[in-house]
Specification:
4 domains
Length: 344
């Protein structure tokens, strides 16, 4: 906006000397600015959390509660194994713990009785040692029974295969009725809550990207999303001489899926470029142009080549204009004025 006000003041100052059809045109100066130098590359979307769930206990698959493309939430039961054997072991472990605890209570009472009598010198030391050993043995048996119960509980819990995170099922690797063993793959899935983009970075850009650590990804809707983290792997691929680079995206983005190809952009430094208001660019069929207003008010249509758009309604000019030149902000009005100029 300061640039626009400056150009308007200059135009007003020269209003008297300009032809009437040129003096009424609003203009802006071609301005040189320092902008980030950006290099664009293609990348592939990946899920940070992805994997295959395997059986952790033996048993027959009783139910598969989800299918490919189903959304599952964290800790949701997705596969049920037949649990008859595991349930029996769990019940046995509970009974063994109860028996161990009863034996411990009896050993504690016996120890307390013998200890009181021994203090009065009414029983021998061997009797006291026997009671002490029985108490230690009972405590060890209770500890072993608790460990066995915990193991039985884990084996019983393994009969229910649960989702480790919220995600989408990508592949079923087993069917109902199959008997599985520990390590048998059952189901695969990915989480869409946290995604990243993997890019093969040319060797010539590696140092600049590692220094700047700035990158962004083009969403399907046309918006650029800044990466929360840029990681350049320290080893180059011997075949392509490229460095694998990851751009971690903000969580819970919608519209991206693993395997998609997307555009990515890396900041590699800065460069001095010319910019003009986007409104000053005229598109005539296949021609891109701007209407340049000279110091004496004469209007010229000039072919230009433009680059990327910038915030604030500005665009980069790659060729066709020079710094300090004035361009008409309204190409339609400038075109009418140019016709009037030619008619005189």
């Amino acid at each position: 906006m300061p640039l626009l006000r400056t150009s308007l003041m200059l135009a007003f100052a020269s209003l008297i000397s300009m032809p009437s059809w040129a003096a009424s045109l609003a203009s802006a100066l071609v301005e040189p600015v320092e902008l980030p130098s950006v290099y664009r590359l293609d990348g592939t979307v990946e899920a940070v959390n992805r994997g295959t769930l395997s059986a952790q206990t033996s048993g027959q698959i009783q139910q598969i509660l989800v299918d490919v493309d189903d959304l599952v939430v964290e800790d949701q039961v997705i596969i049920q194994l037949k649990d008859t054997e595991q349930k029996a072991r769990l019940d046995q472990a509970k009974a063994n713990l109860q028996a161990a605890q009863a034996a411990l209570q009896e050993a504690q009472r016996d120890y307390q009785r013998v200890e009181g009598v021994y203090a009065k010198k009414l029983v021998s030391k061997s009797e006291m040692d026997r009671a002490t050993a029985a108490l230690k043995r009972a405590r060890a048996q209770e500890k072993a029974a608790k460990a066995a119960l915990k193991q039985a509980q884990e084996q019983y819990a393994y009969t229910q295969i649960r989702a480790p995170y919220t995600g989408v099922v990508t592949q079923r690797l087993a069917e109902v009725g199959e008997t599985v063993q520990p390590g048998t793959p059952l189901i695969s899935g990915v989480s869409l809550d946290q995604l990243r983009v993997t890019v093969d970075l040319p060797q010539s850009l590696m140092s600049a990207v590692r220094e700047q650590k700035q990158g962004k990804v083009l969403m399907p809707g046309g918006d650029w999303i800044e990466a929360t983290r840029v990681t350049v792997f320290p080893l180059a691929d011997s075949g392509s001489n490229t460095f694998k680079t990851r751009l971690l995206l903000p969580p819970k983005l919608r519209g991206l899926f693993p395997g998609m190809y997307v555009k990515s952009a890396f900041t590699t430094g800065s460069e001095r470029l010319l910019v003009i208001p986007t409104a000053a660019v005229a598109h005539r069929s296949e021609v891109t142009a701007a209407y340049v207003i000279s110091d004496n008010g004469m209007i010229h249509m000039r072919h230009i080549r433009i680059g990327r758009g910038l915030p604030g309604g500005r665009v980069v000019v790659l060729a066709g204009l020079s710094a300090g030149e004035a361009v008409a902000i309204d190409p339609v009005a400038a075109g009418v004025a140019l016709k009037a100029q030619r008619a005189e």
